[in-house]
Amino acid sequence: MGGITGNRYAIGLVLFAMVALLGVPALHNDYITLTFRNILMFAAMSYGWNMIGGYTGYVSFGNVVFFGMGAYCSAALSGHGIDNLVAAVPLAMLVCASFAVVVGIPVLRLRGHYFGIATLGVSLAVADLVNNLDVLGGSSGLVLKQADQAHFWIYYYAMWLVAIGCILGTYAIARSKLGYAFVAIRENEDAAQVLGISPTRYKVTAWALGAMMAGAAGAVYAPANGFIDPSITFAIDNNVFPIVMAILGGMGTVAGPFIGALLLAGINEFLQQKFLQAHTIFFGATIVLVVVFLPRGLMYLVGLRGGVRRWFADLRVFRV
Amino acid sequence: MTAGQSSRDVVLRVENVGMRFGGLWALSEVSFEVERGTVLGLIGPNGSGKTTMMNIVSGVYKPTTGQVTYKNRRIADVPTHDVCHLGIARTFQVVKPFASLTVRENVAVGAMYGRLGGKRSSKQAFERTDELLDLVGLARVASRPASDLTIPDRKRLEVAKALALDPELLLLDEVMAGLNNSEVDEALQLLRTVNERGVTLIVVEHLMKAIMSISETVVVLAEGKKIAEGTPLEVTSSPQVIEAYLGARFAKRQLEEREKAAPETSA
Questions:
Q1: pLDDT recorded at residue A74
Q2: What is the CA radius of gyration of chain B?
Q3: Mean per-residue pLDDT for A159-186?
Q4: Would you say residue B16 has pLDDT above 80?
Q5: Interface with A, mutate which of B81, B86, B120, B121 (most A CBs under 10 A)
Q6: Which chain A residues have a beta carbon less than 8 Å from that of B60?
Q7: Angle at the Cα of A154 (from A149 to A157), degrees rounded to 5?
Q8: What sections of chain B are H helices per DSSP?
Q9: What's the N-to-C CA distance of chain A in angstroms?
């Protein structure tokens, strides 16, 4: 095992894959470019969730709110004639981090499941609010000015930059003093506190850092898509996929969310082509199987000593 | 300490502390003082309130009555996570390792966030950690996950994590429980070394031999009340202590030993 960052070879593999992904627009296939841009976007959101859910152990069911806020930051700027990602992404990160701090301070003071329930409530409330705010287009949404066709690759590379930022950011955070505070809280909050770690302060920090990642992805998504409304930005998929990706790849690791995003998107794509009508059923079944047989993700298998037997012995599902 | 000042340098003052859980007073009107640089033993039968006292002194519980002052600050006013920044560290009777981290990383967390942690980079915290792992004898398992450790090593890890906070007052809650004789001797040696470096110790222990050999003062609790305080010798001859805790056989042996020793010391 590679300690707090997870397996080193897996991280190397992820970085190699990221370099390879730089070449995607050169294929001049819009469909492939769009598919991989979506994978990068979900990976970024998954890294955002991994900060609080994976590293700090507080499961958020509402991180979609940051993706949505990021998207609306971009759209709001566009409405004022500013169609510039260099302005939109930092603004989205700032807004999302501030929102995480304001909501997090009261909610993350509590231990246990309250946070998960509260985040679900917050995400539904914000989606409803946007739905009824005419300034933000309400339920009919907002249209953004896009780059012309010849420069459309810019959105792909912007999303690539967001994703690599999330990967390298996670690596740096995990190895810093912050990462150890997060993991200490996850493993034993009482013990962490006695070692001088203020649980509320570091839980809020983790959530805010993750919020910035999801917000940045949202800020790039809005102009790339050209149109946003509450139903597509606050979609259930945008909430659930990042969580499942982090679990599939390995929570609390640097490589996990990217590997999970790549695999889950691959599985989804395959199922959609094989079973157009019933693919969501198979997709749901895949998620259930992952949670039952790989509750600690693929990264856990990579680092496992003792092979199949150990894996089998660790499975709780067969112990009644 | 300059001449003329009081020779008693009290670092921790426990005054009339009472702690109620529902209808039960786990502690009532307990008072004692701890002098800088000394070792205080806290003993008592099961359920006498020793761990509750540890939790109050380390700021985990707020006492129902009375107060604990450390260097003239009331512990109850300080958030739990800031108590270690004042210089108080503790171990847990039920060890609480961070299971997915390595032994070295476990200790490093303390070195990063303890009293001097704010001044350390993560690299410096690991350097400090390596010194401590050598001191407590865990260097050989430094890169193993904490969940793999044996019971004696888990106890060592608890001590190392507490030491990583650079404490001035260290509370040790049954760190020798479950150790064999030679391991107890090693642990005592370690505690003496720590004490010689200027750390004041409060030692909660069941093992009489261990506590009697290391403590300068012993406080005895029974059913939440302090029933005796004094040197190990004074405490073990107190009738209340014999009745509440030590049992007649131990007391008799102590008395006999004292009678044997008495003529030599008076000569």
A1: 96
A2: 19
A3: 96
A4: yes
A5: B81
A6: 190, 194
A7: 140
A8: 50-57, 80-86, 103-113, 122-136, 151-163, 181-196, 208-214, 232-237, 239-241, 247-266
A9: 29
Inspect the interface and report whether the beta carbons of A4 and B105 lie closer than 8 Å: yes
Please name which of A127, A165, A160, A166 lies closest in space to residue A246, comparing C-alpha atoms: A166
Report the DSSP beta bridge partners of residue B171: B90, B202
Amino acid B3: pLDDT? 44
Q: What percent of chain A has pLDDT over 70?
A: 93
Q: A-chain residues within 8 Å CB-CB of B164?
A: 195
Distance of CA A277 to the CA centre of its chain: 27
* DSSP reduced 3-state for A237: helix
The set of residues, in sequence order, having a beta carbon less than 8 Å from that of B72 and lying 6+ positions away, is none
CB atoms within 10 A of CB B123: 9
pLDDT in the model for residue A45: 98
Interface A-B: count of C-beta contacts within 8 A:
83
Distances (CA, A) of B185 to A208, A214, B207, B210: 49, 55, 12, 8
Specify the fold of B9-87+168-233: Rossmann fold (3.40.50)
CA–CA dist B70, B58 (Å, integer): 10
Query: In angstroms, what CA-CA distances link B21 with A81, A104, B67?
Result: 63, 31, 17
pLDDT one-digit tens code per residue, B221-255 = 988 999 989 999 888 878 777 777 656 666 667 66
Q: What contacts B129, CB < 8 A, 6 or more positions away?
A: B104, B107, B108, B111, B160, B164
Does the pLDDT of residue A307 top 70, yes or no? no
Q: ipTM of this predicted complex?
A: 0.84
- Which of A267, A250, A288, A299 has the alpha carbon at shortest distance from A50? A250
Confidence of residue B88 (pLDDT cuts 50, 70, 90): very high
Q: What gap in Å lies between CA A267 and CA A122, rounded to an integer?
A: 30
Measured from the Cβ of residue A208, the count of other Cβ atoms closer than 10 Å reads 22
Domain boundaries, chain B: 9-87+168-233, 97-166
Contact yes or no for A181 and B113 at CB 8 A: yes
Mind telling me how many Å the CA of B119 is from chain A's nearest CA?
A: 12
Q: What is the pLDDT of residue A306?
A: 60
Q: Compute the distance between CA of residue B5 and CA of residue A195 in angstroms, rounded to an integer.
A: 34
The ranges assigned to domains in chain A are: 3-236
> Residues A46, A260: contact at Cβ < 8 Å?
yes
Mean pLDDT of A192-196: 93
Residue A72, pLDDT above cutoff 70 = yes
Lowest mean pLDDT among A306-320, B68-82, B125-139, B147-161: A306-320
Could you report the per-residue pLDDT of A119-138, keeping only the tens digit for each?
999 999 999 999 999 889 88
Q: Which residue has the tokens 């519980």?
A: B61
Task: Name the residue type at position B74.
Answer: R
pTM: 0.88
